[in-house]
User: Fold these one by one.
Assistant:
Number 1:
Amino acid sequence: MALYLPFLRRRIGFLGMMNSTLSNFKTSVLSEKNSITTLSDFCNSFSRRFYSNKADKQFDFIHNGGDSKELNFPGGIVKFTSELKFLADVPEERIHCYRVLDDSGQLISNNFVQVDKEIAVKMYKDMVMLQTMDTIFYEAQRQGRISFYLTANGEEAINIASAAALSMDDLVFPQYREAGVLLWRGFTLQEFANQCFGNKDDNGKGRQMPIHYGSNKHNYFTVASTVATQISHAVGAAYSLKMDGRDACTITYFGDGGTSTGDFHAALNFAAVMEVPVIFFCRNNGWAISTPVSDQFRSDGIVVRGKAYGIRSIRVDGNDALAVFSAVCMARTIAIRESKPVLIEALAYRAGHHSTSDDSSKYRPIEEIEWWREAQNPVTRFREWLRGEGLWTTQAETELRDSARKEVLHAIQVAEKVEKPTVKEIFTDVYDVLPSNLRDQEKSLRETIERHSQDYPIDVPL
Amino acid sequence: MVVPARLWPIFLQRQEEFPVHKHNSPIKKDSTPTKKEPLLHDMDDDDNNTSGHHHSLKASKTIPEDSKGKEAEKAKGEAPSKGSSIAISEEHMKPQVVKEESSKGKGKNSPKESTKAKEDTKMKEEEEDAFTEKDYEDVDDDYDDERMIGHDNDDAFARSPSFRVFFKDSGKDYHNDIGKNDSYKVPSDVDAMSPKSLEQGIRVIASRAFSSTAKEMTVRDALNSALDEEMSADPKVFLMGEEVGEYQGAYKITKGLLDKYGPERVVDTPITEAGFAGIGVGAAYYGLRPVIEFMTFNFSMQAIDHIINSAAKSNYMSAGQISVPIVFRGPNGAAAGVGAQHSQCYAAWFGACPGLKVLVPYSAEDARGLLKAAIRDPDPVVFLENELLYGESFPVSAEVLDSSFCLPIGKAKIEREGKDVTITTFSKMVGYALQAAEILAKEGISAEVINLRSIRPLDRSTINASVRKTNRLVTVEEGFPQHGVGAEIWFSLSLSLSLPGCVLSFYTYVHLWLFSASVVEESFGYLDAPVERISGADVPMPYAANLERLAVPQVDDIVRAVKRACYRSSSLAATA
């Protein structure tokens, strides 16, 4: 028996250290806010993580007699109880929602990460720009100019505030309702319009349906139509960042509906096990197209799932830009400093239709939508706070709305006139280098075009 | 879904070793579930491995140990038929014959003759220089290590001190941990000194003598060394999958790599293919070059969304902004006795998807060259191995063993030249086709065997050139007939042309007369006979051995199909 004691001690010591790290973490982060830990700490946590990746040897059970009060089970010590009691399905009280601003934009506490004045103003401007863009693009779709569109109404704060809390080095794996993140990062209105119109200046060479933006330059991975695949990808990319020892994390966005996919569960589990710097940002907007959250899951939202996977989690008010900003700032610190995943559940109502293919008035009361639009408008609330801080005026508001509208209209007009991608772009990028079968097909296509030039559509440049 | 599969590599290797009647193999009786169980299997498995690798070497036992070079090789091929004491099924003999023939063929016909000759001389010299009696002693000394690590090759890494230390250490720990439980003494010397192990010892010596003369390599070692070399060459390459690390891979393909590269580059994952395939794709999106192992490609169906929708399409959909340099690899197709959910061939499935490259290695040379090519390739590659080939040895040249060796993706290999009929095939069926060609040669039919190597892109020009020469085509695959490989099966064409000759094979049930579009489009005028297509039966794989045999193509089926294509049909009774 004595032979094993050193092992045991070392093991307890190790666990104890981890425990204290965890319990003290909140205070330590708050006190050392914004101060990045030393490089050696960072490296230590890395090597520790790799160490912990090895399977634990389970031999401590040898020390437990028949009367012990706890069981050293693989994964950790479990205490015994004589109480025959199941965990509750519905908690007595739902997890609280972190907020900084009240409904009218007044501060209710000082427990938030300070935002620079310029940043705050830019946040507001971008929220307005996102609103404007959504309105006009939506109209363009209604007029048949583009085939599809999808707005972020009601989720402007989630979009912009989360983006503002990140650095440009952080990688974004979006779902599809996060155009604001790209906007914040400097993707121009013209680029948005080019994508939606699928012209030859589009980053994606006109290959994807509207709103499937993507830009390497902005570390924003191309939107995929498949629901929730991006969650696993974010974990994989975070692993890549970690292997490189980069001072950055990945963030992935998904809706409440996406959390029902296997990918969500696999990704959370893998992230916890692989200990990677990723922020899971769930936009719980109450509706997955026509499916309300009550038909989607019976847990207390998403935030409780993080706990089940061993991931630190928080629920925030998605209509409160300051709360979202603070939560993402903090999550980023945790992710990078400890190389651990974090889950954020932001509550914000989808105040628009799911997409242009949807009419949400068919399945939810108009009054409900109106109430959220009016009483819980994230843009208005943030503006009121800015006003209170003396950073915003009515005149600035009018000017901003005017110019935003003009800029968006201009971008659309330009994008519409730019010619479509050339024939060549059908074949490129299937592989890194054009294989012979595609070269043959292109050659054959061009010969056909030559033979039947009178039938060839004029809007496809050769 | 995958946990039981942990058991079947062991089972299969046992089968390989005692393929027919013998079930007295030392199957582990105790299996108290503890954390260390994988190691237990590991050791146990290695044990089998070693002998598994050498089952063919039972033959060498019957010939003088000083047999060298080609003589030895020849003896090796023939010996099993001389009736070694342990029953070896037909299937297990065949590849040996094939090997001999293929290398012979090479020697005679290939333009590389001179190189080959040079190599032979070089090898002989080497052998004479290096293989002294002392080496025998060394080999003997190594034996215990060999048993532990199950490596019979002279791989530098396998013999590296660190490698040994790892295994020895873990063995020691393991005894410490569970020291009180006697049943855990798997690698115990008591077992090892049984008559059986003595026999193994001889085999090992024989194999050493053999491998250092003829330079043979198992497909398993070829894959392992390719992974090792690519990981060592590029720090961005990492492995991920179930049991790839501590357990050394369900089929030991990743043996030794965890110890060499650490858990950050050989990642044991939780069990969900969708999870680690997706995470791998994400890692490939941003800078890494993951090699994802599926325990079998049947399980890749869980991850098909990530393989097709994410990996294959991202480069195109992002207009080249996101390249996905990832490899999905693992055993594909029918193994033996593992039923429907472990036996399907997915070559046609993945072959149907633009954006993917699909490789199907047959020999050790293929395995090494193509896996290296796959890892270096900037596009997603599906790498379909065959479980039954893992333990098979193939002659390899010095060029193949060089760490810079790499095969071009999209080029087929003419394994055997011929003038009367072309047989296109891939993976395990290449071996069968070569055996069939040998039988046919005795009957005066000269068959050209094309090892496709790559399903996508498909080497149409090689196939066409061959068909234009032979004017007859027989395609062979293990997968299902409908929309099978060749992806270019055109029913309308086939129907109009196939009716006259439509004969269902007694043995395979499924011989359809179908046309490969590449041939029909470009070489139809050259065809002197309807194209014969041999495939697996159009049913999920049955488990029972007799039915399973009927459900996959056999050598006889190929022989008969070729004869039909050459209008030399004989009655079934005559060939059966």
Number 2:
Amino acid sequence: MRYNERELLSLARQPAEKAAEIRMSVPKKGSVLKKRLVKLVVNFLFYFRTDEAEPIGALLLEHCRITKEEENVFSISFIEEPERKYCFECATEEQCQEWVEALKRASYEFLRRSLIFYRNEIQKMTGKDPLEQYGISEEARFQLGTPRQ
Amino acid sequence: MKLNERSVAHYATCDSPADHAGFLRKRVERHHHHAHHHGTSYQRRWFVLKGNLLFYFEEWDSREPVGLVVLEGCTVELCEAAEEFAFAIRFDDAGARAYVLVADGQAAMEAWVKALSRASFDYMRLVVRELEKQLEEACKSLAACCKSPRRSSSSGRKRHLSNSSLLPVQEKPTTLENGYSTWGSGGCVPGGATCPDHDGGQTKPPPLPPRRRSAASSATGSPAPGLPPAMLESPVSPETIPFSKLHNWYGQEIAALRREWQERQKRGHP
């Protein structure tokens, strides 16, 4: 599958929502934990060798499961391959919790559900559709009752 | 740079909602590309927009995408290409190629341009934050005018206590408890924190809906004891109690009302 890698690399250089040096392993046989610079930008998680400017890899954070594992550790896996886990060992339990919370909210789909929820609540409370003022009330992405994934 | 391509391709083809989809002709980019050169060719592809990702497939029923355009940070503009209904996705990056796409007609082009220019994660986040604020404000003003048992000025409008707006438990945003957002400050109390039976009168129970009042007070009465809670007209705000407790509370009220009604029936119709 082709993709605009150049733009993705550019995205990796943007200010991050969250960034830290975390020990990380990939779901490959014999993979060990290695210190990486892990950077969350919109719905992508980039990971770098700590002294390099270009990321080794990127994870799109849609349809993924963030799991708190043992102490200081969380993992990311994807819906269609739940056994393949990217593991992250944080410095502290607190850091681990923060990353779990941040990553759970890092998907476009999460934002969409939040928007639909708020829109509906505001409408119930005020009788007005809050999206009308932006002229986007008819956009497909904001509709109630969109099929659940 | 590696990408979790298998998962990305899966996301492209699974049945999560697409924000837009349709056929577009995509200009083929060659190495030595000039703005005006002969022999431009286009390939017809099936495009699917999901969030900030634009996928394209060879056919609408292809099992996996041929390609992906990550849209974050792009601009979408109408194109001065030789083709009618052409538009371009461009990126800030100097030397970055543009994606020139051609729609079937004016309406299709406008729909795509509109959808693509609102596709970024940043934009979505902005809108969500704005709505979050608005909900907080709406809650505050509702709390302010909800001091008396009388309903607010929005009379005549049904407020359903249905929980269709509540998100499924496992997927809800983490800020929700019992379907209500927890706000840090302001007049709203987080769901679950107050409850008539625990609170010693500090919070008033939700006001009785008018229908029930008239049923209780009329002698002949034609009440509807079987009224489901969802049909009751009563303003509910996160300041009172969470939906599940409300549901129970009204449920008990209805049971009591029903007994009352049945007693009256017995007495009135020997």
